[in-house]
Amino acid sequence: MMSLGPHAMAVLSAYAVSLLLLAVLIGASLRRDRRARRALEEAERDHG
């Protein structure tokens, strides 16, 4: 493994924050997708 030297904590913290934000964005996208699919199915049922 590569040695990060005196900046290891800053670099690893930046990676951790990036991964956390990525996970939050993916989760929000999946929730929005589910909500949109339900709304579409309901609209199709009401007008179909």
UniProtKB/TrEMBL annotation:
Belongs to the CcmD/CycX/HelD family. GO terms for biological process: cytochrome complex assembly; heme transport. Required for the export of heme to the periplasm for the biogenesis of c-type cytochromes. GO terms for cellular component: plasma membrane. Pfam families: CcmD. This is Heme exporter protein D. Keywords: Cell inner membrane, Cell membrane, Cytochrome c-type biogenesis, Membrane, Transmembrane, Transmembrane helix, Transport. Its main location: membrane. The keyword Transmembrane applies. The keyword Transport applies. The chain crosses the membrane at residues 12-30. It is a single-pass membrane protein. It is found in: Cell inner membrane.
